[in-house]
Design a protein that fits this description.
heterodimer, A: alpha/beta, 2 domains, 3-stranded antiparallel beta sheet, elongated, B: TIM Barrel, 11 helices, 15% strand, globular
Chain lengths: 224, 305
């Protein structure tokens, strides 16, 4: 899933400072599951903004709603039809949701309440880990299902650097060395000889390095 | 153009000595020049660090070119942290054009450690791919993208690093083998304080026959103070400083003398290990001590090649 984290409240307070009536919009998918931008977090954030504004003598009216998905036109359009008139919309979705809203509301300020962090999964309640960098050309077949692009701090393709010690990454002892994990896993699979093959430079043009990406699939398009 | 002095020394079978120079945080190269002059007769070549620990300094190529003007032999370090393949290949050509003949290809410390922690880490290539790229530019006259160079790179001597103190330990000799397969001709290791572990690593290196396929130079760092020893033990990634070394420094009246003694003893032991072709002395912030260490380790005078 896409993992997000709410921005510091002070930053959100500053963003909404000029507005008297705002709509705080949650998203019911990824950011709900990662406890950053679902119903509960929308309610908490709205309460915090209200309290802050009341205390500072500039009360604000807040409309709240959580859409099933902010990253699809149909869910957003459905809501926007009846959305009350507001000065600004604060999205608690990932960056895709914020941008879709902005596209649909050309005359209105749309603000992000979350920082979109990464693609990953929870290791336990309250702990999420990055697993995928969306490089656009998956190498997990070569590395035993552990991604060196996302999980090695240096995105190395040919084994661990000299900073790997006791299975941990040099940049943080709380981060596993991806190549140590890959080494152990390939050994268990009897495939350690794979690490001897020199992987050529990666073609990063499939990643963001190739420019903003778009997929066009004629086979499923309705209005091709 | 002739090959580098370092290549000549190693190929003639001499036990080689290189010293390390850290460029300054300014464009005033007076001090690094002095350090280089000071070691002129005691080392065969000089490693120039490339923004080591991700701290902005004068470029390794800039200082390397100055050394060429002084008639000295630089080993220009090139990390993958700050430059993409376009820039790395271009810099290689520029440095080679200015007479640099030794390049040491490294991954590079993560920017998090340095004085620009908000920098974008590049890591377009990894160190293995950089080694392969230099070899292809020299031997096949082609860039990574496949286009031909107008003229192949000249007599470049390709270096890489190895860290016997990193993990997984049993994988490390195979990583060295891979670097040799990619094109590495000489290797400089991480600073050696745990000689037992280094010897264990060398045993496996010999078993794989790697010492016959490349020149392995052991890294030696003289410890200047107890604080420096503790710092290396606790703060430098990929390093092992055993307690007995810390205790020796702690117990010594003259800590600097003890640091020199440990370095000299390490070099003497390295000389006895089959497959070790030289030493790389990294006297960080203590460059002026290199001549004394070289002399006391019985490595002076240096061979004329």
């Amino acid at each position: 899933m896409i993992v997000g984290e709410r921005k510091p409240l002070e930053e959100i307070f500053r963003m909404v400072e000029p507005f008297q009536k705002i709509c705080l919009l949650g998203c019911g998918t990824c950011v709900t599951v990662c406890l950053a931008g679902g119903d509960k977090e929308v309610a908490e954030t709205a309460a915090a903004i209200s309290l802050y504004r009341k205390k500072s003598g500039k009360p604000v009216e807040i409309v709240t709603k959580t859409l099933l998905r902010q990253c699809e036109y149909e869910y957003v359009d459905e809501y926007l039809k009846d959305m009350p008139e507001v000065d600004a919309v604060v999205s608690m979705a990932c960056g895709a949701g914020v941008q879709l809203l902005a596209e649909r509301l050309p005359e209105k300020m749309v603000l992000p309440a979350l920082n979109t962090k990464f693609i990953g999964y929870p290791l336990e309640q309250g702990v999420w880990m990055e697993n995928c960098l969306a490089c656009g050309n998956c190498v997990l077949d070569l590395t035993g299902g552990i991604c060196p692009i996302a999980r090695c701090s240096k995105s190395m393709l040919n084994g661990p650097c000299g900073g790997s010690q006791d299975g941990k990454c040099e940049i943080d002892k709380n981060i596993d060395c991806a190549w140590h994990l890959i080494y152990e896993r390939l050994q268990r699979l009897g495939l350690q000889a794979r690490m001897d093959e020199i992987q050529p430079p990666k073609d990063w043009s499939t990643s963001h390095s190739g420019g903003p990406r778009k997929i066009v699939r004629e086979d499923v398009r309705l209005n091709g | 153009m002739a090959e580098s002095k370092l290549a000549k020394v190693l190929k003639a079978g001499h036990f080689a000595v290189t010293g390390e120079l850290g460029p300054p945080k300014s464009a005033d190269l007076t001090q690094v020049k002095e350090h280089a002059e000071n070691m002129r007769n005691h080392v065969d070549a000089y490693n120039i660090t490339d923004n080591q620990t991700a701290i902005v300094r004068t470029s390794s190529i800039g200082v390397g070119c100055m050394l060429r003007q002084m008639g000295l032999d630089p080993v220009v370090q090139m990390t993958c942290r700050d430059r993409n393949r376009i820039c790395l290949q271009s810099d290689l050509l520029g440095a080679a054009a200015m007479g640099v003949r030794n390049f040491l290809c490294l991954q590079g410390d993560h920017a998090k450690f340095g004085n620009e922690p908000g920098a974008k880490n590049v890591y377009d290539l990894d160190s293995m791919q950089l080694i392969s790229a230099v070899r292809a530019m020299r031997d096949d006259g082609v860039f990574i993208g496949g286009e031909k160079l107008d003229h192949p790179l000249p007599n470049i001597f390709i270096g890489a690093v190895a860290n016997p103190f990193a993990d997984p330990f049993e994988y490390r000799p195979y990583r060295l083998a891979k670097k040799i397969a990619a094109g590495a001709e000489f290797i400089q290791t991480q600073c050696i304080f745990d000689l037992d572990r280094f010897e264990k690593w060398m045993e496996k290196v010999r078993e794989l026959g790697l010492h016959k396929k490349c020149y392995i130079m052991g890294g030696v760092t003289p410890i200047k103070s107890l604080g420096a020893a503790r710092y290396m033990k606790n703060n430098v990634s990929g390093m092992i400083v055993p307690d007995h070394i810390i205790d020796r420094i702690k117990g010594a009246k003259d800590k600097k003398e003890e640091g020199i003694k440990i370095a000299v003893e390490t070099i003497q032991r390295l000389k006895e290990i089959e497959g070790v072709a030289g030493v790389h002395i990294m006297a960080i912030a203590w460059e002026e001590i290199v001549p004394e260490i070289v002399e006391r380790a019985g490595l002076y005078p240096r061979p004329a090649v």
